[in-house]
Design a protein that fits this description.
Elements (H helix, E strand, L loop, with lengths): L13 H6 L41 H14 L10 H9 L7 E5 L4 H10 L6 E5 L4 H7 L4 E7 L11 H10 L3 E5 L4 H4 L2 H4 L7
Parallel strand pairs: 1-2, 1-3, 3-4
This protein binds pyridoxal-5'-phosphate (PLP).
Length: 202
């Protein structure tokens, strides 16, 4: 998480973080809120020394500010912004490989369900849907090839609440990746990274 203008941003109260995230002053112009950089490409002034940003898909100052801000609010180390929830979820699942298995909240959002059951299944990524509020079901779903656990809590549509800490602690013991869709709550009321037992970790 980069806060070149303010190293103490992470120590502040949540309400203050919402207003001041530490990098809101634009270094190039002094603008007191982050300008919207619309350029797709950035000039190379020196062939030997590439600029920090060269192409907006790989990095853009406006998006970088958003990503740093979200990481600060979530208590994480890095943020990655996507143009939709499903693009973020699809990308997260690309951490898996053919032959891997994932344990998923049973009443997960329809788009996530369809991604798993009509696309990722064709790529030999298997999923088991369980009532994530029942810890025994989660444990029973574990297979030798289980690689990750995907929680959605509160779930959409039935708003079931998963005990994030219990599941995340177990997942870590089992060396599984933990993924969590926090659509409804925001990091004000629900703090998945800290509940995952690794404050300050991604
Ligand atoms: C829990 C949950 N996850 C993911 C999504 C997908 O988000 P998007 O429509 O931005 O792709 C939604 C959309 O309602 C959702 O409710």
């Amino acid at each position: 998480m980069t806060h070149p203008n303010d190293r103490h941003a992470g120590d502040r109260e949540f309400a203050t973080k919402l207003i001041h995230f530490g990098s809101e002053i634009d270094e190039a112009t002094g603008a007191s809120s982050v300008p919207i950089y619309q350029a797709s490409t950035f000039h190379h002034f020196d062939l030997e020394q590439p600029p920090k940003h060269d192409y907006s898909r790989s990095g853009n100052p406006t998006r970088e500010a958003l990503e740093s801000y979200i990481a600060l609010l979530e208590g994480g180390t890095r943020g990655f912004a996507f143009s939709s929830g499903m693009s973020a979820i699809s990308t997260a699942f690309l951490l898996l490989s053919a032959g891997d298995h994932v344990i998923v909240t049973e009443d997960v959002y329809g788009g996530t369900y369809r991604l798993l059951t009509t696309v990722l299944n064709r790529l030999a990524i298997e999923s088991t849907f369980v009532d994530m509020t029942d810890f025994e079901q989660v444990v029973a779903a574990r297979r030798p090839n289980t690689k990750a656990i995907f929680m959605e809590t509160p779930s959409n549509p039935t708003l079931k609440i998963t005990d994030i800490k219990r599941i995340a602690d177990w997942a870590r013991e089992q060396a599984l990746l933990t993924m969590l869709d926090n659509t409804f709550m925001t990091p004000y009321h629900q703090r998945p990274i800290e509940l995952g037992g690794r404050p300050g970790a991604a």
